[in-house]
Amino acid sequence: MGKIKNNLNKIILVLIIILQIILYIFIGTKKEYFHMDEAYSYGLMNYDKINITDNEDFLNNWHNKDYFIDYLSVNSDEISDFLSVYINQKNDVHPPLFYLLLRIFSLSTIDSFSKWTGLSLNILIGIGISIYVYKISKKLFSSEKLALLVTAINAFSMAMMENMMYIRMYALLTFTILLYTDIFLKLYKKESIRKKDLVLLGVSLIIGGLTQYYFFIYVMGTFLVLIYKSIKTKEYTYLKKYIITAIISAIIYLLVFPFSINHVFFGYRGPGAITQGMNIKDILTGIVTYINIIDKNIFNYLIIPFIILVIVIAFMKKSINKQKGIKIENEELKDKNNKIGIFIIIPMVMYLLIVSIITPYKELRYILPVCPIIVITTCYLSYLLLKKYYTKKAILVILGVLFIIIESTVCLVNNKLDFTFEKHNHIADRIKEKNAPILYIFNTGNNRFLDDIYLCTLCPETYILDVNNLSEEKLREVLKDKNLENGLIIICNEGFDKQEVIDDFKNVSGQDMEHIQRMNACDIFYLDKFLVN
After folding, report:
1. What are the distances in angstroms from CA 311 to CA 56, 300, 412?
2. pTM above 0.90?
């Protein structure tokens, strides 16, 4: 009977994973655009420079679409050249593992750019995330059914869907945090530690560090928990073995990527990031902002009603039991996992607090890696409260119903995913249909060109005009003898007077420009077919 139940639970886990794959693929078809950091992901994994704007011929020249596709894709003559992955990360501020994996996946689309190389990598990682959410939850709840519920809640949350749609290292960081957590939980609970466990711990530390430096914030939280446990129990065997493993892992890590020292301790994302948020007002603002982001992307703005309902359900049962003189003595619920739950909560809170201080922008992407931990701990704390008065089966039903209500509100409030960029109103399709050249007015002091590079891969050619060279005479020179039968698309990035651009174009073309779309860091205009005056 136990074997049948175990097999059934595995089948349910597989079904959850299959359903999440289908869902992520469906949402992936709706991804219309790319954040500049996603463009960076593609460029950093293959190009010979960090940014295409570093090219000497970038400004004040016409470029065909292949010029921009070259930045985003692996070319035929670059198939075996993986050195650019390493060099670009050395010159940038991130470790190289994610970019290496993205490059491997991009070998399936040689000489062309596709969102599916990044999305398929994320979806594969998403499978691993669900497996480890299940494993961790099983350890905490001592219940496979509750573990399956938590896995489903995480897999179909807005946060997880955003994580899958954002082609950046955060999905991989999510996986490495969960992998590390699962291994650490094994060590935390065992009376003896095998060499195999220490090797797995070391591997998780290395790949986590090679994914994103924020990983070390979470690790520090777990290390503090282990120190506390060792001091309290006066048993230092675990701590010694962990420290030795960590030191060996650090040596291997630095041999692989020594540039991390410069990135973390001397780069603008290191000390500079810490000092920029070191005042009470900014810290509190960051914390409140991230609480709101968590509420939106995990609870669909229902975190307060959820907490109230759990408390009401618990104390309602307590009141009934008291009136009937019932004293709960449920041995099934007396497990030893209460204390290890603290291990998960402390590093998660530490991560959120530090990230709220050091992140340059207060955005979902920075806390995506711990969103599954937030889901697990939310269910865990609810479980601790409810288990005093309910059986595990009852708790399963209660939490299941509450989260079904939460997830169903996504349809009611029409929450659109940020990283599918549907708010851009199908701008890529609209630009592609016009099949007109682009004139990009570029301010070198506000370099967010990669926010818009995708559009340049959809049009026959693009001219990048330095705003400092903008004049009516320059426009006439640039557009002279150009085929403008399909009109002209004008993109103006930030940091200059756009009205001046509008006036110059009106004087040159005799027409008013049509404003098409406001983007992340630019405005897009369109001029119908015209002759240069």
Report:
1. 63, 19, 25
2. yes
